Every structure is written in structure tokens, then in C-alpha cells.
Amino acid sequence: MNWEDVSSNTLAPPKASSQPLFGKPSHRPGSPGRWASHLRPIALVVALASLPVPAWAISLVEAVNQGLEVHPEVLAAESEAQSAETQVDIAKDSYWPSLSMSAGPENVLDDSKVGYEITATQVLYDWGNIGAQVDGASAEYREKLEALKVTSDEAALDIIEIYLDVLAASARLSAVEDYEARLAKLQGLLTDRDTSGYSDRSESDRATLEVARANEQLSVEMGALDEARQQFRVLVEASPYDLSQPPFVSLLETMEQPDRLEQALLDAPALQRSHAEVDVARSNLDQSKAKLKPQLNLEGSLLNREIGGNMEDDQIVALRLRMEPIQGLSNWREVDSARQRLQAAEWTKSATQRDIRRNLDSLLDQRKVILGRIKQVEQQISSSAAVVDTYREQFQAGFRDIADILSIERERFEAERQKADLAIEKYRLEYQAATQLGMLGQVLK
Predict the structure, then answer these.
(1) pTM here?
(2) Which of 9, 35, 191, 304 lies at 20 to 30 Å from 434 by C-alpha?
(3) Which UniProt keywords apply (predicted)?
């Protein structure tokens, strides 16, 4: 499955019985072959997944597409959309005449007299009942399409998060290795001082202790990297080596414009899904109202039945008024229940819109904080590097203790680790915002 076809915010739900969910139909609408070209690539990916996976570079877009091809929740949502599309065709079949047949003995005492009845019924007027059924099925189909988008975006975000986890762990590991390299140079200087008799072993021991701490941190970061890579293998079924950092696209920056934010909110798949759920509830209300009124049918029957002891053929063509069975006040209560479900769906839509807006506002605030922190951390790294050089010169002149240099080196290392995490966190915010708005495809492109 090409994930960009699902997650793109410009994807419009195809009309029932005219367009397939993805791509172009190779058979007539409603035929089983409609999805054959789509399911074959998925089957191929599943088959290839059992083969040994070579280690090659994989981009973020490739990882997302490959992971979604075999993601069970996405495949389940896709099947739900197929089923909903079939239900639209079933609802439209109600416009066609219905045919009922029955046969059996006319007299329990004489099995030789077998009668039959064949009745064809065409609905002439039903107060909009069939139309409401079609509208409801179409709305249900739209809801499943939007649910597929939401599921695909959330699954894609999981893959993106793991991809970024690998990058972040790799960056932190590089920071530890650089820190150890600087400590090694400092330890070499201390060894020369010990050999020359300028200091005792306390300085070297202090540096050795710091190296041991760095080695411990190195083990922690290697464990985090291995765990992130293992999660990547599970989700993508590929080796997470030589991952490239994706280009940065600032979606949140454009969302700081109120008009852009409002339009993006209206197009969010989660909100569109809530709109479709409201339409489903409204069509159910229309159906329940229509069922309270008689339905006008044109009926034609062919009968063979016993009349006066003889089997006689008969033909009947007539207009009939038919109503749903009435049991107590259940028919009217069904209308009340449908109206209450509609109100609940409308409140759910409002809650969904509020949640999306709240999440985006939070992401916008976090973006400002992270950008400020990145700037401060970069300044800390630059300042600490300059201080280390100054302290080193003063140490060689005998004006500084080794603990001063190690303390500044440690602060510089912590700032570099923070910078690595913040740089990746900046990406996370953009992808989280894109997931909320259904714009992951645009951000990844």
C-alpha cells in the first residue's frame, strides 16, 4: 500500500460504486477483483519478510511505506473500508424490485397438492427510507475511510518515532565517544605529567574515574540504541543501519498563522471522521422517522393454491400499503433513541475539534520552548569549549586543578547530549502536528 495515498490530506473519499479505495479499479465496481492489484503487493511483502534482511541505508519515507505494508492495524482498517463500500452497494440494491418465493403442501392430509407463491415488490414511495439507508451507508464508508487515514497516520507516527529514536541514540552515542576522546587526550597529558614528576597519581586517578563514568554512559547509550533498533526491526522488518536524517520541514511555523490553522483543523482526518459519524447518526434518525409511515408498494404475485378442493393458478397485481410491525411504543422510542445518538455524535465532534486544537496549541508552545533551549545549549557548548581551552592553559601553568577541567568537560558533554535530544525532539513535534492534521505526506515529501 502506498501510504501517501492514504495519509494525504487531499485524499477525497470516492463515491460508492464508482471508485475503489486506492488507485484505479481493474474490474467493475463491486467485483472481487477490484482489490486484487492492491492485495498482491502486500502478499509479496509478507512473503519477502521471512527472508534474511540485508543491511542497507533506508530513508524515513521508505521505512514508513515498508512498515505500513505489513502493519496489521492498517490492514484491518483497510478491510473495514472495503466492507463499508460493499454496504453502499447493498443499500443501493434496495431501489430494485424484491422477489420472494414460497412453496409447500396446501393440505397436510394430502401431500400431492403442492402450492407456491412468487411475489415481486417494487417500492414506489417510502418517505425517504431507502434514500436514508444509502446516505447512511455512504456516510459509514466515509467514516471508515477517515478511520483508515487516522490509523495509517498513527501507525506511521509510531514508525517515525522509532526512526527518530535510533537517530537520537546514535547522536548521544557519538557525543559520549567524543567525550571519551577528549578525556583520553587529557589522560595522556596527565600521564606525561606523572612521568615527569610534576604531579602525583591523584590527578590521573581522578581522570580515570571520569573515564569510567563515561564508559558507563557509553554502555547505557549502546543499550538504548540496541533497543531502538530492535523496535525498528519489529515495525519495519528491516535493518536500521545507516539511517539518514530527514530534511526538516517546519509545519508548525506555518500553523502560527490563524487562518492556516483554522483551515488545517477543518481538514483534519479525525474531525472529518466525526463529521461522518454525525451524518451516520442523522441518516439513522431519518430512517426511524420514515418507518413510522406506510410504504407504498407495487406488488405482483403468481400463485398456485387450493380453492374448493382443486389446485388453481392465480395472478395478482395491486398497490399495497405496508408498515413496520408496531410493538408498544418501540417505534416512536426508536426515533427518540436515534435523535439522542445524533446529539451524542455532535458533542463528540465538538470534543474532537477541541482536542485537536488543544494538542496543536501545546505543540506550538513546545516548539517555542525547544527552539529557545537549542539556542541556549549551543551557547553553552561554545562557551564551555572556550573555557576548557582557557582552563587547560591555566592548568599547565599551575593555576588550575584537574577537577576544574573535568567539571567543565562534563558540563560540555551534558550540553552536547541535550542538543542531540532537542534536535530530534524538534522533528518529533513537526511529525506529531502533521499526524493531528493528516499532513504527514506533505511533511515527509
Answers:
(1) 0.77
(2) 35
(3) Cell outer membrane, Membrane, Transmembrane, Transmembrane beta strand, Transport
